[in-house]
Amino acid sequence: MTRTVLIPTSLTRESENMRMATLKIGYIARAAAIFNIDRICIFPDPLGEGDLGVEFISTVLGYAATPPYLRKEIWGQRPELAYAGVLPPLGILPRAGSGSEDLESLRQGIVTQVGPDNRVWVICGMQNPISLPIPTGMDVDEGQRVSVRISSEKPLRARLLLDSSPGILVENTDLESALQRDDAGIKIAASRYGNPLEHKDLDELISRVDREGMTVAFGAPGRGLPTILGLDPEETLDPGMSGIKFDCWLNTIPKQGSKIVRTEEAMIATLALLSL
Questions:
Q1: Number of CB atoms found within 10 A of residue 142's CB
Q2: Angle at 37 between CA 264 and CA 66, to 5 degrees
Q3: Collapsing DSSP states into helix, strand and coil, what is residue 190?
Q4: Are the C-beta atoms of residues 186 and 247 closer than 8 Å to each other?
């Protein structure tokens, strides 16, 4: 089941400088890694967006989610990555598909060349790119991220995998499109103005997440989801208000002791509950 989080382009609006904004995005990536998130979607909030908007957020987030041995190949030198050194390491454990016997042999790779003989060249942290056959039924393009199983380095024995996620995917999309995906699962809006999450609700909610997957949307500093969507937070937040269809609005920190809960903090609190 796919697990997706949605964050707005106004995420870094109150960051004092690029260094602090980079660190904030690093905490978002850490939360996603800890709770096995498959995809992070960045949706537009033009009225709240600061100087460091979608290009900055998507670049830094994508870089953070990329294994160190692929970063130079994929990202090169970019001004948005001036403070990439402050990003915390994610240490993402490989997530294999069915039939996996050794998780530690899984690596992310990037296809550098597609040959005419149904083989590809892949960079995956080895000393040199390696040549691998394309599995039947798999479409592969140059620049594509893939998962590689290394069963032996000397001699080299490796293969491309069809059923294993190549890490956390980072995408730019609008909120409505993200919620309409076939694999969206249960669609949750996280907001302090949502319905307080209680013990009695957890079993059913977690069961749905396990069966269907989930998409959880978060707001930004000083701009919660109701504000972003042009809603009055003092009114009852109906799942279908503003034309954006959520299954529920949830307050996952009903007794918060701070006036403002930062996006990265709300992510940890919310995803921890949904991972029980």
A1: 11
A2: 90
A3: strand
A4: yes
Contacts of range 125-129, beta carbons closer than 8 Å, 24 or more positions apart: 125/67, 125/69, 125/70, 126/150, 126/153, 126/156
Which of 101, 150, 100, 93 minimizes the C-alpha distance to 126?
150
Q: Does domain 3-92+180-274 have CATH number 3.30.70.100?
A: no
CB 90 within 8 A of CB 42: no
Phi/psi-derived region of residue 212, left when phi > 0, alpha when psi is between -120 and 50, beta in every other case: alpha
Q: For residue 175, what pLDDT is reported?
A: 93
State the CATH class of domain 103-160. Answer: mainly beta
Among 211, 216, 197, 212, which Cα is nearest to 268's?
216
Give how far the C-alpha of residue 256 lies from the chain's centroid of Cα atoms, to the nearest Å. 25
Exposure string for 146-185, b = 16+ CB within 10 A, e = fewer = bbbbbeeeeeeebebbeebbbbbbbeeeebeebbebeebb
Distance CA 265, CA 272 (A): 11
Fill in the DSSP letter of residue 35: T
Whether 39 and 168 have beta carbons less than 8 Å apart is answered as yes
Tell me the C-alpha distance between 188 and 248, whole Å. 5
What are the residue ranges spanned by the domains of the chain?
A: 3-92+180-274, 103-160
Query: With 0-12 CB in 10 A as exposed, 13-18 as middle and 19+ as buried, what is 109?
Result: buried
Q: Taking the chain (276 residues) in consecutive chunks of 10 residues, what is each chunk's mean pLDDT?
A: 95 93 96 95 93 94 92 91 94 54 70 89 88 88 88 86 79 94 94 90 92 96 90 71 80 88 94 93
